[in-house]
């Protein structure tokens, strides 16, 4: 369970949305919260004072009415925000990084490439928050396959859900839609493998009052996941961030890239 949440804030509206989610989770989990702002160049003392004042006011306005006990504001200076954020995480005292959805505004906003760099290298779960209301999660969907990073995504999503919430783990045996039912024996074999796999994964989760379910489908991965999103309307989608290119495991997978560009809800990515 997350005990220290880091929110990377760049003074953008998207970052304010992410900050609301970080505050909600910090209160729910009784976690520490650190707001980190990276200035791209060494500011003058006057500008530094204005930056700190702006972040303090942002924090104060969003903290009203929320039971977060331990909050810290941290300012860093450097031309490469992603590297400074990753360097702070490498100190080993953060459990969850929260970001806003990427945007194409000029500096000081985090461009999409900064978000991608963080996601490719971040050793802890990254939550990309897009819901302005930021209510506690009631429904979560995990795209689960047999990869270690998908299993880590499931384990990262589990403690973010409050008691009574629902988590559905969906596995897609990827075949072209036109051939989805061509080989029922192969489908039955793959489903049997998945049932054993997901049973083991669920057993490894810490006991919590969260409703767990799972499903197996054959078809095109994107289409099956889109159908699940439409029917289940999750507030949180968890994905493993791997690439299918075994020679370049640091690259984000195409599915993860798609949902980063078109997030249907808050997105949790785990390497």
Automatic annotation (TrEMBL):
Major localization listed first in the record, in broad terms: cytoplasm
Protein origin, superkingdom: Bacteria
Listed InterPro entries: Rossmann-like_a/b/a_fold, Universal_stress_UspA, UspA
Isomerase keyword on record: no
Record's keyword annotation contains Cytoplasm: yes
CDD domains linked to this entry: USP-like
Domain spans labelled UspA: 1-128, 137-271
Keywords: Cytoplasm
Gene3D superfamilies: HUPs
Cellular component annotations (GO), alphabetically ordered: cytoplasm
Subcellular location: Cytoplasm
Subunit annotation: Homodimer.
Similarity-based family: Belongs to the universal stress protein A family.
Name the UniProt record assigns to this protein: Nucleotide-binding universal stress protein, UspA family
Species, as recorded: Azotobacter beijerinckii
């Amino acid at each position: 369970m997350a005990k220290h949440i880091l929110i990377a804030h760049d003074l953008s509206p998207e970052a304010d949305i992410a900050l609301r989610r970080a505050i909600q989770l910090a209160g729910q989990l009784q976690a520490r919260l650190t707001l980190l702002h990276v200035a791209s160049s060494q500011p003058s003392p006057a500008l530094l004072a204005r930056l700190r004042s702006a972040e303090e006011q942002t924090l104060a306005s969003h903290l009203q009415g929320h039971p977060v006990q331990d909050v810290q504001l941290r300012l860093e200076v450097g031309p490469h925000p992603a590297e400074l954020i990753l360097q702070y995480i490498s100190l080993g005292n953060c459990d969850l990084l929260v970001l806003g959805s990427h945007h194409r505004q000029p500096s000081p906003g985090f461009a999409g490439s900064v978000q991608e760099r963080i996601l490719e290298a971040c050793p802890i779960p990254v939550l990309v928050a897009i819901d302005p209301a930021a209510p506690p999660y009631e429904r979560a969907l995990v795209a689960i396959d047999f990869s270690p990073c998908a299993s880590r995504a499931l384990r990262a999503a589990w403690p973010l859900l409050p008691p009574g919430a629902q988590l559905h783990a969906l596995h897609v045996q990827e075949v072209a839609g036109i051939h989805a039912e061509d080989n029922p024996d192969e489908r039955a074999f793959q489903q049997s493998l998945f049932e054993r796999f997901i049973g083991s994964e669920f057993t490894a989760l810490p006991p919590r009052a969260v409703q767990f379910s799972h499903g197996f489908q054959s078809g095109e991965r994107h289409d099956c996941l889109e159908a699940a999103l439409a029917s289940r309307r999750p507030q949180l989608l968890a994905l493993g961030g791997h690439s299918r290119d075994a020679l370049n495991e640091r690259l984000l997978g195409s599915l993860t890239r798609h949902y980063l560009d078109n997030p249907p809800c808050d997105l949790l990515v785990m390497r």
